[in-house]
């Protein structure tokens, strides 16, 4: 059986927190990746009804990312890597000799920072450096057609370029809006993972049920029975190079960047 996840931005709401707890209990969720939790007096509140343990940066006055763990075993908090906008834990998945440690992260990308934020890019490089697999659930506040949004904006281009060169994969499926209001719909909530984990992210879906937030709940599983890919090979087709290169061409035309050298570099990645 896969580990069951929910990913949710609850917009600092008390009612949204209570409703999320209800969904966690009903859907037998084991790990919740939460952005913009309800915070009172500097602490994350409103998740106690779901049971389990909540992890977030202990020194942050107004944390905007946390992880609730209920049922998953062998969880180790990576407190030294947590920030106001980043919550990180570590656990082991797989069976027997294929067991590997995985860092699980909930992240919020502030609109007034680069995309991804420096702390997340540092986390990705850290995990790569020590051979630690990584799964990230985030509110990216970034728009690109690559992950199903209808628009391409500068933050989206910035994020796509980083993901393409860093080796992280986008686990989103389809183009159902993750952010939905009567005035605007977009796909800005992303699930990212190391290449070796991509085949293990199963049943990824956006719930169309009410969440009491402008962000819809996202459900997926992490299948521990699928054998992990043992090398770091990236499938170029999975990254849709042609779409990325076309976007890079447009950027090059605007800024007079030599496209041939960029293309040759990307083809070697």
From TrEMBL:
One of its GO terms (molecular function) is catalytic activity. It comes from the Eukaryota. Residues 103-218 form the Endonuclease/exonuclease/phosphatase domain. Pfam families: Exo_endo_phos_2 (PF14529). InterPro entries: Endo/exonu/phosph_ase_sf, Endo/exonuclease/phosphatase. Gene3D superfamilies: Endonuclease/exonuclease/phosphatase. This is Endonuclease/exonuclease/phosphatase domain-containing protein.
